[in-house]
Amino acid sequence: MIEPGQLILLISHKGKRYLRKLEAGGEVHTHDGKLLMDEVAEAGFGQYVKTHLGKSYLVLKPTLHDLIKGVKRQTQIMYPKEIGYLMMKLGIGPGSTVIESGTGSGGLTTALAWFVGDTGKVITYERRADFYKLAGKNLERVGLAHRVEQVNRNIEDGFLHSGADALFLDVRTPWEYLGAIPDAVIPGAMCGFLLPTVNQVSDLLRGLEDGPFAELEVLEILVRRWKPVADRLRPDDRMVAHTGFLVFARYMEQPEVQPLPGDEPEGIPDSALSDEDPDDAPVTEDDPDALEV
Amino acid sequence: MIEPGQLILLISHKGKRYLRKLEAGGEVHTHDGKLLMDEVAEAGFGQYVKTHLGKSYLVLKPTLHDLIKGVKRQTQIMYPKEIGYLMMKLGIGPGSTVIESGTGSGGLTTALAWFVGDTGKVITYERRADFYKLAGKNLERVGLAHRVEQVNRNIEDGFLHSGADALFLDVRTPWEYLGAIPDAVIPGAMCGFLLPTVNQVSDLLRGLEDGPFAELEVLEILVRRWKPVADRLRPDDRMVAHTGFLVFARYMEQPEVQPLPGDEPEGIPDSALSDEDPDDAPVTEDDPDALEV
Amino acid sequence: MIEPGQLILLISHKGKRYLRKLEAGGEVHTHDGKLLMDEVAEAGFGQYVKTHLGKSYLVLKPTLHDLIKGVKRQTQIMYPKEIGYLMMKLGIGPGSTVIESGTGSGGLTTALAWFVGDTGKVITYERRADFYKLAGKNLERVGLAHRVEQVNRNIEDGFLHSGADALFLDVRTPWEYLGAIPDAVIPGAMCGFLLPTVNQVSDLLRGLEDGPFAELEVLEILVRRWKPVADRLRPDDRMVAHTGFLVFARYMEQPEVQPLPGDEPEGIPDSALSDEDPDDAPVTEDDPDALEV
Amino acid sequence: MIEPGQLILLISHKGKRYLRKLEAGGEVHTHDGKLLMDEVAEAGFGQYVKTHLGKSYLVLKPTLHDLIKGVKRQTQIMYPKEIGYLMMKLGIGPGSTVIESGTGSGGLTTALAWFVGDTGKVITYERRADFYKLAGKNLERVGLAHRVEQVNRNIEDGFLHSGADALFLDVRTPWEYLGAIPDAVIPGAMCGFLLPTVNQVSDLLRGLEDGPFAELEVLEILVRRWKPVADRLRPDDRMVAHTGFLVFARYMEQPEVQPLPGDEPEGIPDSALSDEDPDDAPVTEDDPDALEV
């Protein structure tokens, strides 16, 4: 029995998808006729219901993946391969407060709102009014708007918020806004960036090197799909070869404090904070990076 | 001011890391001398504190990435690149209930517990008593044990739980346990698997094709790191080329229901559910897969 | 001044390509009118000539790449990325004798014939009469037929030739023909194979392990193209993710001779012959694998 | 029976390798004792011979791959994956004349000399006297020096040769030498470049765009090795992720000739010459790029 207010995903035998919030007594008007939400609620997830024209629809509990696929978009949106990694690196989870800009169509905003839960907060900046409105509608539709504070403002003018746990910039010239970060996040906060060209990556790295940032990282994520055929197993013929470069840095108040002669070092070198290959290192019990806890 | 009970990460100028829960009046014994937790609490995140020997330590709020790096391990643990993607595909978020086996050292368990939040639940099965204990200690250390139900049991004997939203198997012969899945998860639940060899992938696909599963997917995730140097930007010389193959499938009660002659199709074909390239498809407003909401 | 008998490549302003052998007094009939070969010869490579309708055509000296692109095909043909690597590994060069099967459309045959020169020989087996004829025409067209001996025969019945320097099999079940190799090549000869699925790779490896072969290698070659734009440099959005797996092995009369107790080892272990990572190892002067010459 | 003057590769049971030219009556002094060349000649390729201390050595006919591995080096040398592709794209084969700079240790020079055969020519420029000498010795050792003309000169001062079929620059700032190319090669000649960083690629592209060049291409080649185990088949854990970017361009006297109003176009647009994805396009009979021959 599905509860009112829960999101449901309805899929026709042709693959047509309808994302709705369950309402007692409600109806869904599909290309194949009308579905009664009460019948959907009674059937339950993973079951089939029929329209008044007798067409079968599968009822599913949508995953975040489904929600993001359903975002109405007027901009390029981020791919799951980058989004998942981002959550790990930025430390996003239930209770996190995160600042994002620009909002765009709200694809990443949806993911951030999903993961911060009801105890967290997403603050998202967008200077274009049309995107601001579009994202608002998208968030409303998937029932996550209450976790998001949308701001229709150019971040050139700075961020209005402070003390965020993490920050993500998906803008064309992020190096122009680095100066606004210290007032927006807590010291030690992780900052992420997504950029399509290597020229932009170079420009951003120059900005980060000049500012209060440490642990710089640049990486790409590639997903290689295989044809799921047991006896003729092989990779797909083609794949997505490029979406963007992910850049990460930690905001540090004193990233390069130098030791005084005859005194103890006050700061820590970048190399001490960032293990060369943090994700990829085969880690064993005697790993020098292993925590002493 | 850091609150008692919060996790803190202390990093020496040499990169030595200590993960602790803050206790009023507590002490941390490092290789460089003693740190007072009250001083740490007062300094706050992103700041430096000194040991009684005058050595500086950086205080950070640990990310999930930091927690997983700190897992004491006797087994290979999953990489962030796979973990992040898994959360997206399995639909894990605050409030989710997820079943996992085997627990191993508890690396993925830590990530699952992080993302399900206090309103969710991770149920993790492990037949070896030593791993069961090790994972328990690791979860305790990072303050996530209360979100996890550990079971020291061979899943050969079935799962003890039902109605989970998602399930993940990281075992050598997952195809032997597919029969236990329908009783453990809700219809429509996403199931994930991680396997190192293509022979295992073939065996698993055979099992999934014979069972109540749809939307089969096989993929690999590659992370390619770059040297973060603005004027000499280029990829690292070497990279991790293989950790494992991720396999996904949706548990469906009637994955292959055939339409009766003269009647409506009751089931939906796999191809309707699974878009060929779900993550990678460039999605536009007129995308046939876009949701009608 | 281009000599009669030389191959010329003519390209229209629309990119239409014509590959011809230069004949004194000859004509080329294009979609844009007639070209006189004498004018082409006089203009020379890298220059433009006009048809009788006044359309310009560029005259180029075709590379092997151009020749292979021009192969009329009824089968999938190999990609330059695999062909180039093959030449290196199989040791093909001027003077080499190499056996190939199947001929298919003659794409690889063209490349082999190019590289063995007039002092070498390519012997190519094809059981299907239609492909045999097609490849013959393709080779004739590019002026390389005199370096090739075509055989219209099923290699099930063995090879008719012996003493080849190298051998390449591009057939569906190469493991069925391994027994014919020792009579066809010199001891120590390199053998190559191309296979689309991992199931076939496993089957072939089983066959090679059971036979007189050493130095087994399996690899894939990926080419990632970039958009050649100086100020917006980035990889192409999509790439070819899979063509096939290349497998290599050295035919050895005694690949696994065991040392007698109290005697000297007669054979050499596979591991001694094959360095773990032969192509990729960064090689330095004190490399243990470096030759003593 | 191996002929005097032929190259032989001798491999100990421990994998120690000796590359020599066979001389009647000669001897090879190994770590395991003395080998008689007459016995080697009589044994033949693929056979074993014993030292005077009774140790077995395998006799092989070296491939190009073996020769390059044996190059004594004081510089980074190119990998087979790039070398093979280069031969294809530059159109190198028996009879080709090719210009190269810098010579370095002579690794690529060896490969070029191998493929051009006795009827071709490699002209290689190196400004450093020590590398010039080292490469000379390396070429002598593998018996290919007679196909190579070495020049100890800075290409800043231009090339001394003209009319080459192809040209390859492996120097730090190739964009500084583009002006010397037109006098060195035939119109329409393919030019290749290898560069480690994207900053250099951008600089080179700017130079090529400003000069008489067409068909610009930038690409990377990745080789992914697999563990050759039939029942546990999977990729190697690590791989080489970066050696360099390959850049190609065709030298054209009039790369951008514009059509006059009311007249026929005189030149051809880059896009007409360069198919978007020349190597990777799945080519079929009705391919618009297919040659009309």
TrEMBL record, chains A, B, C, D:
Residues 62-227 form the tRNA (adenine(58)-N(1))-methyltransferase catalytic subunit TRM61 C-terminal domain. GO terms for molecular function: tRNA (adenine(58)-N1)-methyltransferase activity. InterPro entries: SAM-dependent_MTases_sf (IPR029063), TRM61_C (IPR049470), tRNA_MeTrfase_Gcd14 (IPR014816). Its EC number is 2.1.1.220. The keyword Ribonucleoprotein does not apply. It catalyses: adenosine(58) in tRNA + S-adenosyl-L-methionine = N(1)-methyladenosine(58) in tRNA + S-adenosyl-L-homocysteine + H(+). Residues 263-293 have a biased composition (Acidic residues). It is an enzyme of class 2 (transferase). S-adenosyl-L-methionine binds at residues 105-108, 126, 170. The keyword Methyltransferase applies. Residues 256-293 are annotated as: Disordered. GO terms for cellular component: tRNA (m1A) methyltransferase complex. GO terms for biological process: tRNA methylation. Keywords: Methyltransferase, S-adenosyl-L-methionine, Transferase, tRNA processing. Pfam families: GCD14. Homotetramer composed of a dimer of dimers. Catalyzes the S-adenosyl-L-methionine-dependent formation of N(1)-methyladenine at position 58 (m1A58) in tRNA. Belongs to the class I-like SAM-binding methyltransferase superfamily. TRM61 family. This is tRNA (adenine(58)-N(1))-methyltransferase TrmI. The lineage of its organism: Bacteria, Pseudomonadati, Thermodesulfobacteriota, Desulfovibrionia, Desulfovibrionales.
